[in-house]
Amino acid sequence: MPLSGLEIYKLLPQTNCKECGYPTCLAFAMKLAAKQAELKACPYVTDESKAKLEAASAPPIRLVELAGEDGKIAVGNETVLYRHEKTFYHRPGLFLRVRDTEPAEALTKKVAQADGFQVDYVGIDLGLDGFAVEAASGDPATFAGAIQTVRGASKKPLILLVSTPELAKAGIEACAGTRPLLHAATADNAAGMAEVAKAAGAPLAVRADSLDGLAELTQIVSQAGVEDIVLDPMLQLYRDSLHTLTQLRRLALRKNLRSIGYPILTFPGAVNGADEPLMAAEHIAKYAGFIVIEQFDPATLYPLLVLRQNIYTDPQKPIQVQPGVYEINAPDGKAPVLVTTNFSITYFSVANEVEGSGWPAWLVVADAEGMSVLTAWAAGKFDAERIAKAVKGFGVPEKVGHQRVIIPGAVAVLSGELEEELPGWEIMVGPREAVDIGSFLKAMWPNGK
Amino acid sequence: MTIELHKEKSTGAVRSVTLGATKEQGGSRSRTLTIGGETALPFLDFEGSLPNRPALALEIRDRKPADWSPLLYEAWGEAMNDPADWARAAEAAGADLIYLVLSATQSDDSPNSPEKARAVVRKVLEATGLPLAVAGPGQAELDNELIVPVAEEAKGERLLLGICEDKNYRTIVAAALANDHLVQSKTPMDVNLSKQLVILIHDMGLPLERIVMDPTTGALGYGIEYGYSVMERLRLAALQGDSMTQQPMLVNPGEEAWKVKESKVGEGVPEAWGDWSRRALNWEAMTAAALVHSGADLLVLRHPESLRRVRAVIDDLVAA
Ligand code: B12
Ligand code: SF4
Questions:
Q1: A398: burial class by Cβ within 10 Å (0-12, 13-18, 19+)?
Q2: If you measure from the C-alpha of residue A4 to the centroid of ligand 2, how many angstroms do you get, rounded to a whole number?
Q3: Residue A12 pLDDT > 60, yes or no?
Q4: How far is CA B262 from CA A296, A344, B74, B216, in A?
């Protein structure tokens, strides 16, 4: 929690020597509080004060970064409980669990398939963030071998699920050149785990089934020199998850409780009786940092990735595309002209349908301030004037040899006004839903494909 | 070392609203459904009370809809041909409430009529003992034409009548007032608009205990984040004592989720979307599961399997 100017002042020498460039220590303190000055401008501040000031300016939830051979993921550093208060910043990482007891060939196949999984959502490529390799065999050599196999099929970041420092060490060695997360330090092995993590400079997860247990462990491992810590609260079902995750986030943000100010790791499918997709959905909405799933199923992963994208969208800024005219399937002068808005979801629903239909077309994207068709229409940001301006402004009349434009069926009411704004043009009212654009064009577009 | 749990006490409470009336209460329902009443954020019962769990409704139609996903036809089968069968099937699937939507046209494509609407509602009331919601087809004039006779036909049943929107609420509210029903007050994802419409409806004389607020939601991938945050804001405001936000919230993830391509269409979609049926069910259930956490008190669903899954989640969330 940031300190006030007065609180900072109390930590300064209070001699008003002016060397910092300010007339008094208090003036300097005020500037520090407003983040308009840097502490190092004062040569006399004690080490003790410096430590206190730095601790106070550290984020309440630490940012922890993992790195694979290729690709990184950073989680934590969240500042609010509800996304409308500001935004959620670092999307939770989704990792797939694999075990070192799986035969190498099957492991390679599974990892390669999951690694290659990629799905497009409004122009954003979504996929898994990495793999959690479990040392289920209990044998360091087997574990190291499995990690090599996984790394042969994927360059994404890894989480190493290990129960002893020996396994951790074997895992870390097999991960040379990357920054995996070690999981986990428990009451039984914390000192040994911390030693391995510290030597490797790797983040370490601590595992306990109570808040007190977690706080004790983070203290042990941070005293041993590990700074990047992740919490595994050993969540049970939905209710326990919600209560624990909410408490951890609140205590970190509202109470500035440092001992639990770390990102949280969950296993939504590992608990008896859990519906993995729905439990993972809860963990995405409510505060998880790393989510390890048991099943690789695109039919689950795709909606989960979309949910994560939605929850972590900045509420102040809808995802938009650049207004302009987009060419789909190499259109020529006979190709249809369609207009839509620059809200990403709207644009991509239309563009994907047109592309899939095989019709070449000009898609005119009006600047509707990132709103959907009806929202923009209701807000006065997608009216005849704006549409006409887009059609003319983006040079459509010069690109096509006809004067026909198709508007979304949802704003059929605009056609009269648009005729006035675009004299000589025929305004065609398209279907309400983008899915029907192909059949609409087939039936209605005079020039054929 | 003992970490003390952080509790946030609220100064306000969501109103309790009861749908349906038993024989003693002037209706014919075998049970009633009470929603709302919370003095804490969803499921955080360590700092307040949540006397009523979120309820789950299944949507049925007065006639088999023409444009639903094939997966829904598969799920309901023959039952869709008859609203009474459909209502019975929905009750058997575990619904707390039947959400009946009247269509704009009859099966011979002639416009729906007041007589037909009355008959359907009567039939559904006889087929099930569950409380009932009835919504019009969503065209102002026709809505009023159908909902008024329905309200009379079911006088005293404490139906939830829909859908009141800012441009069309007076007739429906008057019908609810005259016949002892409740209303669904729907506004497009905006805290102030939600409050305003509740005020307008209340100003007509309908007690707040008979208004359910529908803040509107979008499906996963299609605007859920807006609805999610508006609901969180409404619920936080309610707990802070802002009276006109204290209505229980209804949302319709079923309608929204089954409208989108991901659930509707099985062919000609990217392979990365995975198995159609599992994807579609996840779409509806996940949309609903997220909304439960933003404060939904009543969720309208379409697929019985989604209801079963979301029910299991809620069962655990409320287990003390
Ligand atoms: C999410 C949402 C919002 C979000 C905004 C999201 C955004 N960035 O646009 C927020 C919460 C901010 C919002 C605000 C408002 N909203 Co709003 N909102 C919605 C909601 C729930 C979903 C809209 C959406 O994203 N749809 C998905 C996109 C992909 O749909 P689409 O753009 O229409 O595109 C489809 C088709 O039109 C077609 N299509 C698109 N382009 C083209 C082009 C051609 C040629 C063709 C053929 C087809 C085609 O393809 C797409 C897929 O099928 C709808 C209700 C609903 N469930 O539909 C209300 C809705 C659009 N909103 C509405 C209103 C009134 C408003 C507000 C004015 C209310 C207010 N709160 O003050 C404000 C206006 C904004 C402002 N003043 O800033 C009303 C509009 C009513 C009307 N008919 O006029 C709606 C319909 C809700 C309702 N039933 O009352 N809204
Ligand atoms: S340099 Fe340090 S001691 Fe001197 S006036 Fe500035 S803050 Fe005070």
A1: exposed
A2: 17
A3: yes
A4: 18, 17, 17, 20
Tens of pLDDT, residue by residue over A62-121, are 999 999 999 999 999 999 999 999 999 999 999 999 999 999 999 999 999 999 999 999
Confirm whether the ipTM is greater than 0.90.
yes
Pocket of ligand 1 (CB under 6 A): A 318, 338-340, 343, 345-346, 349-350, 370-375, 377-379, 406-410, 430-431, 433-434, 437; B 188-190, 193, 216, 218, 222-223, 226
Report residue B305 as tokens: 């399997």
For chain A positions 133-192, those within 8 Å of chain B (CB to CB) are none
Cα dihedral A314→A307→A354→B74 (10° resolution): -150
In the numeric block, the tokens 């390669």 are attached to A112
Question: Which helix (H) or strand (E) is A28 found in, with range?
Answer: helix A25-33
Q: How many CB atoms lie within 10 A of CB B73?
A: 13
| Beta carbons of B40 and B10 less than 8 angstroms apart | yes
Rounded mean pLDDT, B188-192: 94
Residues 6+ apart with CB under 8 A from A225: A194, A198
Q: Please list, in sequence order, all residues whose beta carbon lies within 8 angstroms of the beta carbon of residue A230, skipping any fewer than 6 positions away.
A: A64, A181, A183, A203, A204, A205, A206, A262, A263, A264, A265, A289, A290
**pLDDT tens for residues A401-446?**
999 999 999 999 999 999 999 999 999 999 999 989 999 999 999 8
* CA-based max dimension of chain A: 85
Chain A CB within 8 Å of residue B73 CB: no
Q: Using the predicted structure, report yes or no on whether residue A2 has a pLDDT greater than 80.
A: no
Instruction: Give the mean pLDDT of A381-394.
Output: 95
Residue A265 has pLDDT above 90, yes or no: yes
CA A176 to ligand 1 centroid distance, Å: 50
- B289·A299 Cβ contact <8 A: no
Instruction: Give how far Cα A330 sits from Cα of A145, A340, A362, B198, Å.
Output: 50, 19, 9, 51
pLDDT at A35: 76
> Could A282 and B224 be called an inter-chain contact, meaning their C-beta atoms sit closer than 8 Å?
no
Q: Is B268 near chain A, with CB under 8 Å? A: yes
Read off the tokens for A255: 């109470």
What are A203-226's pLDDT values in tens digits?
999 999 999 999 999 999 999 999
pLDDT recorded at residue B68: 95
The gap between the terminal CA atoms of chain B, to the nearest Å, is: 26
Locate the chain A residue with the closest alpha carbon to B312: A275
Closest residue by CA, ligand 2 atom 2: A42
Pick among B3, B192, B256 to test the A interface (most A CBs inside 10 A):
B3
Q: Do A275 and B309 touch (CB under 8 A)?
A: yes
Contact A84 B229 (CB under 8 A): yes
Look-up of token digits 């910092």? A20
Atom 7 of ligand 2, residue of closest alpha carbon: A25
pLDDT one-digit tens code per residue, A156-190: 999 999 999 999 999 999 999 999 999 999 999 99
Closest partner residue to B225 among A239, A254, A313, by Cβ? A313
* pLDDT for the residue numbered A317: 83
Q: Which residues contact A194 (CB under 8 A, 6 or more apart)?
A: A185, A204, A220, A221, A224, A225, A226
In this structure, what token pair is assigned to residue A362? 């000009």
Compare all CA atoms of chain A with the CA of B261 and give the residue at the minimum distance. A435
Residue A51 predicted with pLDDT over 90: no
| B239 shares contact with chain A (CB less than 8 Å) | no
Residues with Cβ < 8 Å from B109, sequence gap 6 or more? none
| Lateral strand order in the sheet of A93-99 | A229-232, A204-207, A181-185, A158-161, A130-134, A93-99, A290-293, A265-266
Distance in angstroms (rounded) separating the CA atoms of residues A327 and A359: 11
Q: d(Cα A92, Cα A77) in Å, to the nearest integer?
A: 11
- Cα(A343)–Cα(A322) distance, integer angstroms: 9
